[in-house]
From TrEMBL:
One GO BP annotation of this record: carbohydrate metabolic process
InterPro entries, per database record: Citrate_synth-like_lrg_a-sub, Citrate_synth-like_sm_a-sub, Citrate_synthase, Citrate_synthase_AS, Citrate_synthase_euk, Citrate_synthase_sf
Name used for this protein in its record: citrate synthase (unknown stereospecificity)
Family, similarity comment: Belongs to the citrate synthase family.
Amino acid sequence: MGVIKDRFKEKADVLAAEIKDLLKEHGSKVIGEVQLAQIYQGMRGITGLVTETSLLDAQDGIRFRGYSIPELQEKLPKAEGGSEPLPEGLFHLMLVGELPTDADAQHVTSVWQRRSHVPNHVFATIEALPVTAHPMTQFVVAIMALQTESQFAKRYAAGMNKKEYWDAVFDDSMDLIARLPRVAAYIYRRKYKNGDHIQPNGLLDWAGNFAHMMGYQDESFKELMRLYMTIHADHEGGNVSAHTTHLVGSALSDPYLSYAAGMNGLAGPLHGLANQEVIKWIFELRENLNTDLPSKEQIAEYVKKTLSEGKVVPGYGHAVLRKTDPRFTAQMEFGKKHMPDDPLVQTVWNIYETVPPILQSLGKIKNPWPNVDAHSGALLVHFGMVEYEFYTVLFAVSRALGVLASLCWDRALGFPLERPKSVSTRLVKKWLKGEDEIWGD
């Protein structure tokens, strides 16, 4: 086995033993209650999953293995001459649970470079789609085409012992993560650059090579990709893409099938598509106000008009967070360092100072603060990536790091098939009348 695989297996064996003891001693302990409203309203707030890679705090935001975004920016390895964290280091942290050394991060880079070959039939499958197809449609179809390479599927069909599931899932996950930048960049160049494709550069790190293959050679853009891939990588296990990947994986679907399912969830307007909705809204704001740099007063009037029409301000509010998303703050700091005079970026900052007080005055929202989607588009546009339909694909490539690290843990810990109980409204009404004391088996 490889170095990182060995370390992962050691950690997983220890935790599996701990969980076995926990369940033996405390398995019947009640950890919460469920209110009727929760089962009708998206199961918000119900504790029902275990995810080792990250934990979301309402005040501090996301913590990866206990480390906040600012701490990761300080402690994770950087590319030579760079100042943003390498996603390889974050993946190592999520998978192994320990801060990586520079050598650890370089090892992950090397492993992904070796595993990054994409078979020709995948490109042929992409080419069979209309070039007008949404980038996320092309991306998910490409992942399904890659599924022919699944070691888990082949080994399971050959009678693999269940104790080896984790090993095959690990290899599939590493292969898939390694290949995603090549696939995503191919889709980008096909759809937006007349099919003028750029070959990988084996000397670059994972995110830097992704930027290169998309056609962006600016070192600052490569730094943005490193930051972007890091801060979008995971957001605990209850969001749609993470939960879907976990759920489908619990059926022993291989990582390609599981990740593809999760990314279909990410493509939804209420999840990953939100980042393109934000930049569309800002473009519309500037067009309606006929200025590239609207004043805070103009923004306030436009926001009030938007809300009065029953619409929302995209990029503001979060299901869990109750303060400014640290991922927004990290991007704002990047903007101040690399593009402080950019009118679009300045508009994002002016919106940030304008929108929360307005939302607070309405008294109908628990979190009036910006989330990660409120800033990312403006940074990308600065470097010339104006094709906002593609932004969700960037999100998808990043999110692979978290959901596939978690999938490795799912199989290493032997998590079973997920199968919650559902009820009908008829049964709920009978129960409320005292006519039925049990909810079913």
